[in-house]
Amino acid sequence: MTDPLADAATNRRNFLGLIGLGAAAVAGGGLLAGCSEKAGSKGVASKADKGVLPKFKAVDMVKPDIPGEGPIPQGFLSYPTNLVDAISEKPGSGGPTIKTMAPWWGPVPPGLGRNSYLDAVNAELGVQVDPSLQDGNTYFDKLSATLGARDVPDLLVAPNWEIDKIARFSDAVKALFEDLTDYLAGDAVDAYPMLASLSTGAWEYSVWGGRLYAVPFPTDGPFAWALFQRKDLMDAAGVAAPTNVDELYQAGKKLTNPGKGVWAFGSVFDMVQQAFGCPGVQNGWRKKAGGGLEHKYETEEYRQALEFTVRLYKEKLVHPDVIATKGADEKTLFNGGKILMYQDGLGAWQGMQGEQSKVTPGYNMQPVPAFGAHPGTKPVLWGSEKPIFFTFVKKGLGADRTKEILRVLNWCAAPFGTKEWELRQYGVEGKHFTRGPDGPVPTDLGRKEVAEAQFTFLGGRVPAKWKSSDTPNYVQDYINYHKASIQYLEPDLFKGIKLELPANYSKVLQPTEDKIRDVLNGRRPLSDLDQIVSEFRSGGGDEGRAFLEKALADNGR
Amino acid sequence: MSASDLTELAGPGQRGQAPDAGGGGAPAAPRPRKAKRGRRPLRTRLHRDWPLLVMTAPAAVLVVIFHYIPALGNIIAFQDYNPFLGDNPFEAFIHSDWIGFGNFQTLFEDPAFWDAVVNTLTITLFQLVFFFPLPIFLAILLNSVVSGKVRGFVQSVVYLPHFFSWVLVVTFFVQMLGGAGLLAQQLREAGLQPWDIMTNPDTFIVLVTAEGIWKDVGWGAIVFLAALSAIDQNLYEAAAADGAGRWRRLWHITLPGLRPVIVLLLILRLGDALSVGFEQYILQREAVGRQAAEVLDTFVYYNAIATQQWGLGAAAGLFKGVVGLVLILVANKLAHKLGEQGVYQKI
């Protein structure tokens, strides 16, 4: 009998000696700390350089019924009968497969090789695009690992709210992505007319360190949140949409019926804060009357909003699942009529209305018109004209390849009313969609194989809302909501200034939100708010304030 | 009689030997031979052992590539690591600033870190008392079931939850015990006020332990079942012939037979004292709050990964590793003092 481990065993004493050293080193840490420094970025703020921006040139191929106004998208009340062929040349020049990564909030369609829609679009492009769609809710984890490992695909789509969370993003941009200034700045963008039609306001956000690094995907609505209601069920219960927080509370009392498994509310805290007029810029800053900035935590409005929401929680008007798990599926609860009001991005609206009107006859999802806390007061609605996504091109692919990729992006940016748009949005007629009186109706195959994250997210596009057969009233409803609410949109103090927040400030946000959640759930009394705020200030809040005040002063604002 | 003779021949290592999946095989060979073998020249030993070395090589290569080389990355615990410096990840290591023990200082000065450590240790201790023994009981119980069919069925049923993800397990508990779950709705229908199970921070430790038991008790029983099957049946017969009852046999034969495995698993669990899982806690953290649900891994996620303070995260990981190692060494030493083999043994 031989024992292969026997020899190794004799060496364990030496091994233990090494461990002893390690333990000593750790124990000595306290002593050594005297000569050590603290880690973490102190923050960077840089201003957009207008010289590198592409020259705007509108593409007027199809006239909208309702022209876009500022951040409000164009509206089309009917589907055009004659589609325009906007791009005659094939964008691809026989390069290798273009790998992409983008977030997607929905079922992931089959990948390249098993997806006839991808094949159809790729045939039109003249180059293979291989999209990798990642769960949008956990996209940050994927993105941060991808960047940290410096292993990026040819095209990377990053949502603006995830970029804000990534420390040293400007370093990452320089190290990993191609500088697009020489390809797109000024008149150079003429080679990509669809990209030239994206708004200059959106391009302004695509500048890092004075250079143009990304193609923006302009927002189709500036608001961060809306309060959605199941209007069909509220009407049936005889409850009108609330116009102040007291009515909101009364509606909650009336609609909640635990015996039937129905609670009035999902998450609503952000909307309540906006009703009370809390600031939302850069996570909640506004100018103080006497100069300087104050954070929402420090304001009376926030205290009242918190007090009000605590009452909703305490009187059990919020669905228990929403309280009990992170990321409870509020959309499903809402669709099932288990909650009747909840906050969500306006982007959720059309998809849910379209899907659910087939499942639940009479399903009517509507945003509650924006309201102030009390009769006569006005809400402050959070949001900005920041593009929803940025698309980055991998660094070092060579000029020819970069141009090929930009031509693909140009194709992906073709606006509503073009043949390219229809193929991109719906696929092939007869296969992925059929043409109804109100325009294309997706087939089951189309629903399975087509997702906007495959191509549309890549290229930006002039935002538009159009009538579709499953959401006949949507365009009018959407634009009316925006026209009524735009007066309450909070101006962005930092518009055009690229901010990378100090690490200490970024770090204090989550623990503070945890403590606020403790108050909401009734684990801590409301009176603890003062202590929470003072911990926020000393833990990095004041450092963040000084940084942001300086950024404003440096830009003369 | 012949059977007990065989037991004699196999030597004292026999009983502990069978369930030895954990790698405590070293002491099985008698000592005098080892001492002699140490004097043999390397070439002779290579000649004799090469098939064993070849068999070990793939595993060793995997360990080197996936454990030892990545472990070098721990140097970022002493850096203000910026992954975007230089032209590739290796240059990023070189160009990042050295800050000595700054990350450790930040970590140790943060009261939230110590809260997380205390939470983690409390949960470990609690589960050591209320969770660790359950698979042993279950294994003994299953082992005493005579019908193979019944045993197989029960085994499959209790193993199954191990293969569910934590998302599924937590969702299942919410659907059953949550405020809108089955239990709460039944209580409401009966006119009672449902009590707060999923969102009560005071009983959270019981809840996570219950979830863990539901998920993993069957899986944990496997290794004990294997150990039980290795106990010589003749011992039971002999003891029964000598008039020992059911409990005496359990106490004097079954438990001593399981002891090496129990001690081994206990030591390994202690080494993992600072890990109690991640998904289970991050999923329920908002429901009960940071005070109850913040464990070391979620602390690292929120304070290091989510804010990209990679150096800080590595420092926390290193701290965890060193504490785990010290605990293993201490526990192993203790096991030797108690006359057990432990995870390894010095010659």
Can you walk through the features of this model?
The complex is a heterodimer of chains A (557) and B (347). In chain A, α23 (503-520) runs antiparallel to α24 (529-554). Chain A has 24 helices and 19 strands. Chain A folds into 2 domains: 88-220 and 386-461, D-Maltodextrin-Binding Protein, domain 2, CATH 3.40.190.10; 226-382 and 495-554, D-Maltodextrin-Binding Protein, domain 2 (3-Layer(aba) Sandwich). Chain A is of the alpha/beta class. Chain A starts with 5 loop residues before the first helix and ends with a helix. Chain B has helices at 2-10, 14-17, 31-37, 42-71, 89-95, 102-109, 111-130, 133-143, 148-159, 166-177, 182-189, 204-229, 233-241, 246-271, 279-288, 290-293, 296-305, 310-337; strands spanning 79-80, 97-98. Chain B is 69% helix and 1% strand. Chain B is flat, with a radius of gyration of 25 Å. Chain B starts with a helix and ends in a 10-residue tail after the last helix. By secondary structure, chain B is mainly α. Residues 1-35 of chain B have low confidence and may be disordered. Chain B has 18 helices and 2 strands. At the A-B interface, α1, α2, α3, α5 and α7 of A face α4, β1, α6, α10 and α11 of B.
